[in-house]
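User: Sequence in, structure out. Go.
Assistant: Echoing your sequence, followed by the structure tokens.
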Amino acid sequence: MAVTRLLYGVYSVTGMYGIIPPGKARKLIFEALDAGLAGFDTADIYGRGLGEELLRGVKTGFIATKVGYRLDTPRPVQCFDPDYLLKAVRAGLERMGRRSVDLVQLHNPPLEVLRKPETYKALRRMKEEGLARYTGVALGPEIDVLPHAIEALSHDEVDALQFVYNMLEQEPGATIARLARENGVLTLVRVPHAGGVLDESVTEPPRFEGSDHRRLRRKGWYEWALKTYNTRIKPLLEEHPGTPGQKALKFIEQTINPDYIIIIATTEEKIREYAGYKNIPGIPDSVIRGIVRAYLEEAPKSPEAPRTLSM
């Protein structure tokens, strides 16, 4: 039975955060359920279908997937043609051995796609045909996705938004979360540990190789993030119980209260650690305010500072 609002990010085990043998990947899927996680977030493009195949046989939990990239091209190419989207959802369900999922999300759609009426007709058909209980949009990979969120929220077919939010990347996520709540839309937060900085699994500027998703960060971002965390945020949290990774999750819960938080974990120990965040006490309001203040003061210096920071 789920005891947390955490979803296991299946991209953890599809080569985007290092190579994980298939046997270990499958074991981690069921470890996530045993640890009390609420379910899974995946996409057809993760491992070119592997991210959905790994969920075959999973009978419990909230299942979210994403479509919008072609799987038959050498490099990922986006495609939001309505017929293709429906075909992709059906193919994903077949890989998972399911008739439907809880949530289907458009995967990083450009703003022009979100402005097309046919996009929402496709989402509506997914629900009408019983392929998904909810439909929504996973925003990204761009930083300034607030216009995308505002456009998506203007359509009744959008039941959920997924976006980045953490201590080091508070905007535009905080604004998106507020708007989503005002519209009764589910919220899913990803990248809660800022690429390893906030759980201290990354302690110096890294050099990621191959398909590791973190290599897409802009030059100098890790230097900025590590300096900001170590000098402005970590000192505020040192006296508070819990691991750094648990405190990062608690911050998200206390500040924007999302429906789900998607974690990245490549070991059973990390899954158990993150699941334990529910057992640590709340962060004092004064500390929360200090973290928000530190972000507002330091974020303009970030190589990935959003243009919407001042909103």
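User: And one key feature?
Assistant: The chain has eleven helices and ten strands.
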